[in-house]
Amino acid sequence: MRNRRFTSLLIFFAISLLAAITSCQKDPAVKEPDASKTNITADSSTFSSSGNFLAASGTLKIKYNDSTYTFDAAKDSIAFINVHIDDNTSYFGITAINKEHNISFGISSSGFAYSNISKSIAGSQFLLSADDKKPVLQLSLSRYSGQKDFGNLNIIQYNQGNELAKGTFYTFLAKDDKANSPYYKVEGTFDLQLK
Questions:
Q1: How many domains does the chain have?
Q2: Which end of the chain is more exposed for a tag (fewer CB within 10 A), N or C?
Q3: Which helix (H) or strand (E) holds 171?
């Protein structure tokens, strides 16, 4: 259980770091990095940036309780991430941060991304902040004992023409990882384009 938690934290660290990097790419003064030269290193594992895409247009919508939060790729940063740790361990997912940097979301599944798949959720996190000092709300994947369903990430279309990724997801997030913690169903849709 501890190794699974470490792996999940490592993946979320990588996704969060990539979100921070991609959020800077919306600035027109920043040059596009050379994908063959960009690597991110964490805990002696190296992640190549090849296979990671920053959406140019489209939306990511997240429904939590009675509210819907929308990320718009024209102004916010939304990236489709592919992380390959070794020959047997790969993850894919979506990470987003709004222009104001007060709402962020990430969701991932294990394996490889392709069209017409439904994969179990491996990790997810949703953050809302009033300022840059402390999150007002911080939810992460609920993995307490007894939880059988962590949700699904469904990809209808992936990397075809201008379509980066289109699909739906649902997951269960909690404020902490204790057995009696209440969890919340978070669901959403994404339709992201490369142009």
A1: 1
A2: N
A3: strand 163-174
The Cα angle at residue 54 between residues 51 and 59, in degrees rounded to 5: 125
Q: Which two tokens stand for residue 187?
A: 């669901």
Token digits of residue 34: 């050379």
By CB atoms closer than 10 A (0-12, 13-18, 19+), residue 25 is middle
Cα torsion 31, 36, 42, 44: sign: negative
| Boundaries of domain holding 176 | 2-28+49-193
Torsion angle in degrees (nearest 10) through CA of 40, 43, 44, 49? -20
Under the banding of pLDDT at 50, 70 and 90, the label for residue 16 is low
- Pairwise CA distance, residues 105 & 195, whole Å: 22
pLDDT digits (tens, 9 = 90+) for 84-104: 888 888 999 999 999 998 999
pLDDT in tens, 27-64: 443 334 444 433 433 332 333 346 789 999 999 999 99
Query: Would you say residue 124 lies in a domain?
Result: yes
Could you tell me if residue 125 is inside a domain? yes
